[in-house]
Amino acid sequence: MNTSTLCLHCGAQAATLEDVAAVPVPVETDTYKPLPHYDLAVNTLRIGEEMMEGKGFKVDKATFGLNKTGGRMFGVVSFANGVSGMGLAVGFRNSYDKSMSAGFAIGGRVFVCDNLALAGELVVMRRHTGGILEELRDKLVLTFHKAHQTWESLVTAREAMTRLDLTDDRAHEIMGRAFGRGLLEPRQFLRAAEEWKKPRYEEFSPRNLWSLYNAFTEVYKGLQVHEVMERHVNLHKFTTEIISEN
Question: How far apart are alpha carbons 124 and 121 in whole angstroms?
Fold first, then answer.
C-alpha cells in the first residue's frame, strides 16, 4: 500500500498508522465515549478492502494527518480500478477535543494532483457517546455498499464537466457565485482565479468546468482539518447545479 504526504489541510502533519495509534485516547466519562483515531482509520481500510475488491477496486493509497496536539485526525483511503486519471476515495475525520463529530464522505481522488472530489453526502456520526464503535462499522458498511453507484455518478459528472467549455468571463462568474455561497474565502478566490488563469497541471489547461473545479480543490489544500470534507461535498453539489443549468 502506497502512503504519501496528506496535503489537504493546514495546521496538520502527515502521519503513519503508528503515529495515529500513539496518540493517547481521552478518558471515557458518563457522557463521552471516545472513538480512537486508530479504530476509525483501520476500520475504513479493512472494510474498504473487504467490500471494494468484489467491485473491481483495490486500495491504491492511504494517507493520514494529525494536528499538532493529535486531537484532530483526517485521512483518505483511495482505491483504483484501472480508470485513468481518477480513483474512488473515502475521506474520514475524528477528534478528541470535541471540535467535530466523527464522519466520512465518499467520492473521487484525482491522481495527478491528489485533489478530492467528494460526492454525495457527508456521513456524520452522532456525538461521541456509547455505541459509537458499532455505529461506525454499520455506517462504513452502508457507505461502501453505495460506493459503486457513487463512482458511476462521479464519472458521469466528470465527463459532463469536461464537455462544458467556459470563457474567462463565465469562469469568473461561477467563482463569484461560489464566493457568495461561502465556498471560497477572499484569499481563496484570488488563488482559484490564478489557478484558472495559469493551471499548475497541464491536464487542467483545457478551458472547461473540470479545470475550474480542480482550481477550487487545489486551493482547498489550505483548509483546516474540520473544514475539509464539508467544503468538498458542498462544492460538488454546487458544480452539479452548474451542469444542470447548461
Answer: 9
Q: Where are the domains of the chain?
A: 12-155, 164-244
For the chain, what's the residue count?
Answer: 246
Tell me the pLDDT tens digit for each residue of 154-205: 889 999 999 999 999 999 999 999 999 999 999 999 999 999 999 999 999 9
More confident residue, 125 or 11: 125
State the pLDDT at residue 103.
Answer: 84
pLDDT band at 44 (very low <50, low <70, confident <90, very high): very high
| Average pLDDT value for residue range 105-122 | 79
What is the DSSP-derived secondary structure letter of residue 176?
Answer: H
Grid cell of 53 as nine digits: 475488491
DSSP-assigned letters across all residues of 7-75: -SBSSEEEE-HHHHHHSPPPPP-SS-----HHHHHHHHHHHHHHHHGGGT-EEEEEEEEEETTSSEEEE
Measured CA to CA, the distance from residue 216 to residue 105 in angstroms comes to 18
Please give the Cα distance from 36 to 21 (Å, whole number): 8
Exposed e or buried b per residue across 125-137, where buried means at least 16 C-beta atoms within 10 angstroms of its C-beta: beebeeebeeebe
Nearest in space to 74 (alpha carbons), one of 7, 141, 146, 27 = 7
Distances in Å between the Cα of 84 and the Cα atoms of 75, 171, 245 are: 23, 26, 28
Q: Report the C-alpha gap between 188 and 244 in whole angstroms.
A: 25
